Amino acid sequence: MLRLMRGAAIAYGGFLLALGIVAIAAGIAGAAEPGRITVKRAAVVSGATVTLADIAALEGGAVALAAVELGPAPPANAPRRLDGETILRRLEAAGMDASATRYVIPATVRLERAAREVSADEIRTAVLNVAHDALPAGETIRDLEVAGPVRIPAGDYEARVSTSSHGRAGRRRFDVQLVREDAVLATVPVTARTDARGAVVVARQSLPRGTILGPDDLAVVERNRQDVPDDALAAPAEAIGMETRVALAAAAPVPRAALAPAVVVKKGDLVTMVVETGAMKITATGEALEPGAVGAGIKVMNRASKQTVAGRVSEHGVVRIER
Questions:
Q1: What 3 state SS string does the chain have?
Q2: C-alpha torsion 129→134→137→140, nearest 10
Q3: CA–CA gap between residue 276 and residue 283 (Å, rounded)
Q4: The pLDDT of residue 6
Q5: Opening angle at CA 25, ends 20 and 31, nearest 5
Q6: pLDDT below 50 — which residues of the chain?
Q7: pLDDT score for 9
Q8: Phi then psi for 188, rounded to 5 degrees?
């Protein structure tokens, strides 16, 4: 009898132990805390990537899904919409238990990037800080036109200004890049009106077309470079000996385009033909069949032999024959 009672006790104890295991397992299964996700219809995000926490209120077990990524954030000045179906698919892929989670997701969510405004004055200051190195010598900024203010994602930034300006004296362009961690957030064009004083060659008096310029015909004055042609000469040596292609007014800047090499031999002129062969130099009288400036190739006719040869004008009235 005692043996039977002991066996029954063991069996009953085993039964209780089995019930305990079942109870523990049931407790574990029920440990998954219910969660709730309520997605907003509009949200402002601050990071480069949109997470569930950016756009939704999370309760209970749903808090574990806060870091689920839903795609890149929009630019600072270009809101966009995120499809509700896309949000649900991302959550399911991340392991959301639909049976334990209640969720409310609208058809679309309007996303806007948290932004800061960079003022036109901040951009002007960035350009002025590099202007001395970026502009040609003697050129200074009178005023700046800035396409601003500019909105960029919230946070610190660095302004990088192109160190070489584009344009001509009087009107230059700079590009200002707003950068964070080597990523360009925005590029802002800036136009600078400048004053550029420098030496300019001018005519001392009115000069007719065809004048061969000498030192007495020219003077050097200081002018604002924006008020003179782009090709205005800065040194008299560039003009002396040249011939005016157009008439020049007194005190007018002398542009390179207004000058041409002076014709020192005219068609029909009698010239000295020079032939050099080693130590021998032979000269003869010829007639220029074409006009030419110094260095120009022309044809001449030997007056004695009537033979036509090619030569190059070396100075006034002299043509060296090419062999």
A1: CHHHHHHHHHHHHHHHHHHHHHHHHHHHHCCCCCEEEEECCEEEECCCEEEHHHHEEEEEHHHHHCCCEEEECCCCCCCEEEEHHHHHHHHHHCCCCCCCEEEECCCEEEEEECEEEECHHHHHHHHHHHHHHHCCCCEEEEEEEECCCEEEECCCCEEEECCCCEEECCEEEEEEEEEECCEEEEEEEEEEEEEEEEEEEEECCCECCCCECCHHHEEEEEEEHHHCCCCECCCHHHCCCEEECCCECCCCECEHHHEEECEEECCCCEEEEEEEECCEEEEEEEEECCCEECCCEEEEEECCCCCEEEEEEEECCEEEECC
A2: -50
A3: 9
A4: 41
A5: 125
A6: 1-31
A7: 42
A8: -115, 120
Q: What sign does the CA torsion over 128, 129, 134, 136 have?
A: positive
Q: What is the pLDDT of residue 220?
A: 94
Q: Cα–Cα distance between 180 and 46 in angstroms, integer?
A: 14
| Per-residue pLDDT, 140 | 84
pLDDT of residue 276: 87
* Predicted model pTM: 0.48
Query: Cis peptide before 149, with omega less than 30 degrees from 0?
Result: yes
Question: Residue 115 has which token pair?
Answer: 């932004």
pLDDT of residue 165: 65
| Cα–Cα distances in angstroms (integers) from residue 184 to residues 123, 178, 295, in the given order | 15, 6, 54
The CA distance from 186 to 165, in Å, is 18
CB 238 within 8 A of CB 254: no
Give the torsion sign (CA, 131, 136, 139, 142).
negative
